[in-house]
Amino acid sequence: VSTSQDDEAFAENAYRSDLSEAVRQVSRPMTEAKDKGSDRRPSVAPLVLVSSQRVDDSNGPAKEPDEAPQDFAGFAKSMGAKELPDLLEAAAAYTSFVEGQASFSRPEIMKRVARVDPSLHLSREDGLRSFGQLLRQGKLRKLERGQFTIAETTRFKPEQRIAGE
Length: 165
Fold this sequence. Notes:
Blueprint: H1 2-35, H2 72-79, H3 84-98, H4 106-116, H5 124-136, E1 140-144, E2 147-150, H6 158-164
Antiparallel strand pairs: 1-2
Helix pairs in contact: 2-3, 3-4, 3-5
């Protein structure tokens, strides 16, 4: 019985000496900093951004756009979208090409169209029917659950429209 108590005491002493050594090593830089009159903490490694989060300033100042970006209502009007399927496709194109979003949701597009013309009285059923029609025609493509993208062949691509005018 005394052997197990001796083993426990030895293990506890080893633990305490390791702990006190670790505490002394950590607290020593803090006391040295206080001796110098500084409240700084010991330095830690800086955060590093992954490449998708980095900002590259080496390209120089940003160029001024030729035209001020227009809102969706102006975009839809300039593209000639008047009927619900055309407005939905134009909203998808605006979201992808003007705002630069790779994907969008159906409710996002429906809300954008509803805001542009409140007199349109967009019903849920009409919106779903038109959205489904665009999917079947290949004008919109489903990416994953609830996410869609516009086909590259859309007639509402801004640069094609400008070049064709």
